[in-house]
Amino acid sequence: MAHFLSDLFNSIFTPGPTPSIIIATNASFAGLQLVLLVLLFLTYSVHFAVLSFLCAGLWWAINWFVTELETANQKEKEANQIREARKVRDVTPVEDSGTETEGGGNQSKELPPAPRSEGLLRPNDLQAALRKRRSLGEASSGDLSTDSEWDKVEEMGDMDR
Predict the structure, then answer these.
(1) Between vectors from CA 109 to CA 107 and to CA 112, what angle results, nearest 5°?
(2) Residue among 22, 23, 47, 26 at smallest CA distance from 36
(3) Which residue from 34, 37, 30, 38 is spatially nearest to 58, judged by alpha carbons?
(4) Measured distance between the N- and C-terminal CA atoms of the chain, rounded to whole angstroms
(5) Averaged pLDDT, 155-159
(6) Shortest CA distance to 121 belongs to which of 131, 112, 110, 111?
(7) How confident is the model at residue 119 (pLDDT cuts 50, 70, 90)?
(8) What pLDDT, in 10s, does the model give residues 18-71?
(9) Is 122 helix (H, G, I), strand (E, B) or coil?
């Protein structure tokens, strides 16, 4: 028990969810649920039922958050392993067979490919998007005010007459 308490005290100062913190949190919530259940049976007050429901929701949310953190840490470890494997692969020299390929020769001198961004526009894509916007705006008279639109309506009315 003394070892658990010292481990619990030390885990307060370490980042992330440690096993001793998780055990202490779950034990505290279980004790709180037990106290709320006893008070509910002694007083028959709906307040303790509501407090028990809120306690259960918070208890579930904390455990869910801990599992999400553990999943994120696991994915980060896997990503680091993949990065290390790519570094090792990119650093190892490629033997030149003496024949030219479409790739352009020795791959160890080339820069590693840039990481793909799914949702972000690259500078070339951004320029193309801006050109599209400009070309759409150029189709009109270039003046985006309401007055120019009324002028066009008046011109259309003059043409009908």
Answers:
(1) 70
(2) 47
(3) 30
(4) 98
(5) 73
(6) 131
(7) low
(8) 999 999 999 999 999 999 999 999 999 999 999 999 999 999 999 999 999 999
(9) coil
Contacts of 29 (CB under 8 A, 6+ apart): 55, 58, 59, 62
DSSP notation for 85-115: HHHHHHHSPPPP-SS--TT-S-GGGSPPPPP
Distance of CA 151 to the CA centre of its chain: 49
Please list the alpha-helical segments (H only) found in the chain.
2-12, 19-43, 46-91, 123-138, 146-160
Name every residue whose Cβ is closer than 8 Å to that of residue 6 and which is 6 or more positions away in sequence.
none
Which whole-number Å values give the CA distances from 23 to 4, 29, 46, 61, 98, in the listed order?
A: 10, 10, 29, 15, 63
- Which position has the higher pLDDT, 6 or 121? 6
Question: Distance between CA atoms of 108 and 29, rounded to whole angstroms?
Answer: 57
Contacts 24+ apart (CB under 8 A), 119-125: none
Q: Kindly state the tokens that stand for 36.
A: 């709320």
Give me the mean pLDDT over the 129-157 stretch.
Answer: 64
